[in-house]
Amino acid sequence: MNRSLDEAREALRQRQGDGARYDAAAAPARDLDWARRGTAYFARLLNGLGDADLDGPSSLEGRLRREIVAHVGYHARTLSEIVSSAREAQPNAEPVPMRVDIAEVERRATQPARALRNLFAHSKVHLNVEWRDLDDAQWRAVVANGADQEIAVRDTPWLRARAIWLHAIDLGAGGRLTDAPPDFVEALVADLTAERARDDDVAADEGRRFVIRAAETALWLSGRRIRRPDGVSSEMSPSPVGLMNL
C-alpha cells in the first residue's frame, strides 16, 4: 500500500477522533482513494457550470452535459445497491441490478438542473456510506443476480473510479485526465487495453506512428479524442466506449 496514503488515513483518524466511521482494514484503499478523488474532481467541474450550461453538449458525441450528470448519479446508485446487497445478505432477496438503468437515466436527464445536482450529491454520499459500512468479510464477498452475472464487492471502487474520471472529461468543463493520479491512469490503460484485447471486433492499429502519454492512451482506448504532438486531433478509436456501465 502507498505509504503516503497510509499516513493520510491516520491523520484523518486523528482529526475526526473517536466515533467516526472508517474503511475496514480489508477495503481496497488505493481504489477507494481514486474513486473519492475522482468524485471530488467531478463535483468541482459540475459546480463550475451554470444551470443553463447543463443543456450544452458534452465532450461525448451525441450526449448533453445533463445526460452525463444523470448517468454518473445512477452509476453510483447501482453500485450502492450491489454493496448494500453484500452488507445485508438477505436470503431470497430480489436480484441485484448489474447495469445502470439507461431508460431511467434518460428520463431523469430531462429534469431541472437542481434535481440533477441533487441526484449527484445524494448518490455520491450514499455510495461512500455503503463502502464505509462494510466489514472485512463483506469486502471479500461476491454479489450475483441469478442470471450468471456477478461482481466482487472489492471491485466496486475501481468501477466507480474509472467511470467518474472519464465522465469528468466527458462533461466538457475543462477536465483533463492528466489531473488524475498517475498510478490511476496507468491502471486505467492496463484495464482498457485488456478489454480491447477481449473484443474481437477491434482491429489492430499498427498505422499510428506518434508517441502519446499514458493519459492520452487511456482516452483513446475509451473511444475519446486526443491530440497528437503536432496538434492535430486524432480519430476516435474504432469502438467508442461511451457511457461507462458496470
TrEMBL record:
Keywords: Isomerase. It comes from the Bacteria. GO terms for molecular function: isomerase activity; metal ion binding. Coiled coil: none annotated. Residues 36-171 form the Mycothiol-dependent maleylpyruvate isomerase metal-binding domain. This is Maleylpyruvate isomerase N-terminal domain-containing protein. It comes from Flavimaribacter sediminis. The lineage of its organism: Bacteria, Pseudomonadati, Pseudomonadota, Alphaproteobacteria, Hyphomicrobiales.
